[in-house]
Amino acid sequence: MIKYILGFVIVLAIVLVAITVGANNDQIITFNYIVAQSDFRLSTLVAILFGLGLILGWLITGFFYLKLRLKNMVLTRQIKRQTQQINELTSSLNVKAAE
Question: I need a labelling partner for 67 at 20 to 30 A (CA). Which of 22, 32, 58, 84 fits?
Answer without folding.
Answer: 84
